[in-house]
Amino acid sequence: MARLNAYLAPLSLLFLAGSLVMLWFIILSAVTTTTPLNQTYFLSARTDGITGARSVTQWAYFYICGEGNTDCSRAAPAPPLGWAWSGNPSNAPPELVGTHGGDTTSFYYYYMWRFGWVFYLIALVFSVLAFFCGFVACFGRLGSAIAGLTALVALFFHTIATSLMTAVFVRMRNVFLANGRDASLGRYAFGFSWGSWTALLIATVLFCIGIRGSGDGGYSSGGGRRRWGRQRSVRSRRSYDLNGTNGRRVKEDYA
């Protein structure tokens, strides 16, 4: 099994590293104008005519920006989606406007994206922990178990984050379209999100495969198979057989 882990663990680390890189691209979106960060956003929509809004608005992880991820707002944790316009705006889709985020965002979009935003960070933390635990997986099943458990927790939070993100921005796009405004999903952000999730899923499965022992419980040092369980003593069985045979002979003599 140590030999199997020597192949599975590096492969798991490779997928986990890919997942982390894509996750960082999402979190750092719009931080600079360098590709692909300047093209990574969740939703782009025409917001001209809405009070206090840009002509085109793009929603990134920390920022709300204009076209090309320029003219961005200040960085903020879980920014309300309605910060793209002023409070109590005119001409904004009514489904998006509410009393949250300074009278800019409805209850649904405010809390759905806030929870999704936080779960992305939690998934990142556990993915980083799983990556470092993955180096221990090269040395045996215990390391694979630790890395696999950590990766499974990361996968759980990543699933929630990606699902919430998809639900929020797909629904938000549909609202803009229903109100006669052009809107499109960010292919980079969605691609990175689901690509990162898929890579993390593969890494988790590979770590779990490394936990499994052989069919009969393990391997001997000489390459042959053996069981990890306690072996019955051959000497004890022979002694039992001899005693049983002698006992029968004594009974026959007395008979």
Summarize the structure.
The chain is mainly alpha-helical and 255 residues long.
For the structure shown, list the relevant keywords:
about 260 residues, mainly alpha, four-stranded antiparallel β-sheet, 4 strands, elongated
Describe the fold and architecture.
The chain is mostly helical. Helix content is 56%, strand content 5%. The protein has helices at 2-27, 100-103, 107-136, 141-178, 187-211, 234-254; strands spanning 43-46, 56-59, 64-65, 183-185. A four-stranded antiparallel beta sheet has the order 3-2-1-4. Strand 2 and strand 3 form a beta hairpin. Helix 1 (2-27) runs antiparallel to helix 5 and helix 4 (141-178) packs antiparallel against helix 5 (187-211). Mean pLDDT is 85; it is low at 214-230.
Topology:
Blueprint: H1 2-27, E1 43-46, E2 56-59, E3 64-65, H2 100-103, H3 107-136, H4 141-178, E4 183-185, H5 187-211, H6 234-254
Antiparallel strand pairs: 1-2, 1-4, 2-3
